[in-house]
Amino acid sequence: xxxxxxxxxxxxxxxxxxxxxxxxxxxxxxxxxxxxxxxxxxxxxxxxxxxxxxxxxxxxxxxxxxxxxxxxxxxxxxxxxxxxxxxxxxxxxxxxxxxxxxxxxxxxxxxxxxxxxxxxxxxxxxxxxxxxxxxxxxxxxxxxxxxxxxxxxxxxxxxxxxxxxxxxxxxxxxxxxxxxxxxxxxxxxxxxxxxxxxxxxxxxxxxxxxxxxxxxxxxxxxxxxxxxxxxxxxxxxxxxxxxxxxxxxxxxxxxxxxxxxxxxxxxxxxxxxxxxxxxxxxxxxxxxxxxxxxxxxxxxxxxxxxxxxxxxxxxxxxxxxxxxxxxxxxxxxxxxxxxxxxxxxxxxxxxxxxxxxxxxxxxxxxxxxxxxxxxxxxxxxxxxxxxxxxxxxxxxxxxxxxxxxxxxxxxxxxxxxxxxxxxxxxxxxxxxxxxxxxxxxxxxxxxxxxxxxxxxxxxxxxxxxxxxxxxxxxxxxxxxxxxxx
Amino acid sequence: xxxxxxxxxxxxxxxxxxxxxxxxxxxxxxxxxxxxxxxxxxxxxxxxxxxxxxxxxxxxxxxxxxxxxxxxxxxxxxxxxxxxxxxxxxxxxxxxxxxxxxxxxxxxxxxxxxxxxxxxxxxxxxxxxxxxxxxxxxxxxxxxxxxxxxxxxxxxxxxxxxxxxxxxxxxxxxxxxxxxxxxxxxxxxxxxxxxxxxxxxxxxxxxxxxxxxxxxx
Lengths: 485, 217
Prior knowledge:
The complex is a heterodimer.
Chain A: H1 12-29, H2 31-97, H3 101-121, H4 133-140, H5 148-225, H6 229-272, E1 277-278, E2 281-282, H7 283-305, H8 313-316, H9 320-363, H10 367-371, H11 376-395, H12 398-448, H13 450-466, H14 472-484
Antiparallel strand pairs in A: 1-2
Helix pairs in contact in A: 2-5, 2-6, 2-12, 2-14, 3-5, 6-7, 6-9, 6-11, 6-12, 7-9, 7-11, 9-11
Chain B: H1 2-19, E1 28-35, H2 44-57, E2 63-69, E3 79-84, H3 89-109, H4 118-132, E4 136-142, E5 164-169, H5 175-179, H6 181-197, E6 201-205, H7 212-216
Parallel strand pairs in B: 1-2, 1-4, 4-5, 5-6
Antiparallel strand pairs in B: 2-3
Helix pairs in contact in B: 2-3
C-alpha cells in the first residue's frame, strides 16, 4: 500500500526512472544552495572542532605550566629539606668534633711540652774535666831526670787520673742511659700526638665530604631556582620513579594490613559482638578496621613528630619540646594498641581451639585429641608476635604514603596533559575529516547530477562559440566563485 | 590542604556510619520439625546428625529451634530445644554444647506419636520465627511428609510462607510408595504447591551431603 504511492506509471521500472529523473532535476535546480549549505555546515563543524582543539591546547599549556610549577616547588622543597638536613649534620659534626678541639689542642700542647722537657733532659752534657787536671799537667811536665821519687809521684798521679777517668766514664755512661730512657719515654707521647692529629684530620675530612655533598645539592637547588629544563626533566623522572616504587610499597603494606585485619577481626567479636552490622558489615570487622586505621594514623603522626615525613605542616611547626612530648604520646598509644593486638591474637587462638573442640563434640569425635597438641604454642606465639609487630611495621607506611601523594600530583598532571593532547589531536583530525567530507559530498552531489551538468556544459560551450552573455552557466560559475571565496 | 581533606573525610565517614547503621537482620533462623510418628522414630539418629551439623554451621546471633511433630503440633509444648545464640562466640559454643545434650536426652526418651501434624508444626514454626525476627528463615522438615491428622483438627488453611525456605530432609519412601511411586511424587508435589502458594521456597534434600550449601548462604 505504501509503495503504491510511488507508482507514477503502472510499471515499477518506469516509475523508478521517472522518480530518478525528477530527483536529478530537483538536485540540479538546488545545486547552488545545496553546495552552499554543505560547505557552510562542514565549515561550521570544522571551525567548532578547531576552536575546541585550540581551547584544549590552551588548557593543556596551562596545566603543563601548573605541573611545572608544582614539580619545581616540590623539587625546591625537597632540595631545601636535604640541604637543611646536611647543614644539621654539619652542625652536629661541628658541635660534636670541633667542640672538643680546645681540649684536643690543650692535650696536644701538654704532650708537646712533655716531649720538649724530655728532649731537653735527653741532651748530651759532656763530662767536665776535673779542676786539678791543669795542675797535674804542670806536675807531669816536671823533668824527673831519673829521680825515683818524682817517678813515684807521677805514677800516683797517673793512677789517680786513671781512677778519675774510669769514674767519669761510668758516670757518662749512666747519664747516657738516663738520656736514652727519656727518649724512650717520648714514644707514647709521639703516638698520642699522632692519634690526636689523625682524629683532627678525620673530623676535618668529614666536614669536607659533607661540604662536597652540599655543593652538589646546592647546584641542583640553583638549577631548580633557575627553572632549567634539565631540572624539570630530572624532577619529573624522579617523581615517576617515586610514584611506582611507593605504590609497590603501599601495596605490600595493604597486604600486611589485611593479615592484621584477619588476625584481630574474629577475637573482636568476643568484645563487641559479631551480630550487629554497620552499612552491611559486621561490627567486629568494622572495629578491626578502625583499630588498624588508628594504628596507621598513630604511626603517621609519630613519623610526623619525628620530622621524617611532612604531611601535616602544623605538627612540623610545633616547638621541639611539644613535638617530642607528642611523639612520646603517639608511640605510647601505638605500643598500647600493639599490646591489645597481641592479646587479641592470643584470644583468637583460644577461640579457634574452642571452636574446634565444639565441632569435634558435635561430630562425636574425641575432644582430647583436638585440644591437646604439643605444637599449638608455636602458632600462638607466632600470632602474638605478628599482632605486636605489624602495628609498628604499618607505622612506616607514612614514608611511602608521603612519596605517593606528592608524586601522584605530578603523575596525574602528566596523565591529564597526555589525555588533553590526545583529545586535541582527535578534535583536529575530526575537524579536517569533516572539512574534506564536505568537499567529497559536493563532488558526490555533482556526480548524481552529472547528466544535466554535462548538458549545461555543452550549452555553455555552444553559447561561448556564439558569444552570448548572461547565460545561466555564467551565474552558476559566479555563485561558485562567491562560495569558494 | 591535607588537613582539610582529613577533616572532611572524617566528617563524611561519621555521617556515613550514622546514616548506614542498618536495622536489617543478617542472622539466620532455623526451625527443624522432627517427625516422631510411628516407624519414623527409627530415623531419629539421622535427625541427631543433622541437628549437630546445623549447630556446627550456625553463628552467634542465629536462632535454632527443634520441635517434634506429633498429633497436634501447633503448640509450644512440642518445642524440644530452642536457642538464640549469644553474640560472644565462646558463649555461643557453650550454648551449642548444652543444646546438643538436650537433643540427646530427647532422642533417648522420645515415644512415637499416633498422628503426624506437619502443617500444625509449620504454623508454629512461622509464629515463632516471625517473633524471632531472623533475617534468613529456614524450616527443615525431617519427615516422610505423610501427614495424618486426627479427626476434629482443621489443617486445611492457607499458610503464609513469604520469606521462608522450606527444606524437606530425609523424605523416606514408604512401603506403599514402593508399590506406587506416583503416591510419593504426588505427596512431594502437594507439599511443593502448599509451600509455593504460600510464597515460600521449596526444596527436597535426601542426600545429607548436600546440606552444606544451604547454610553457606
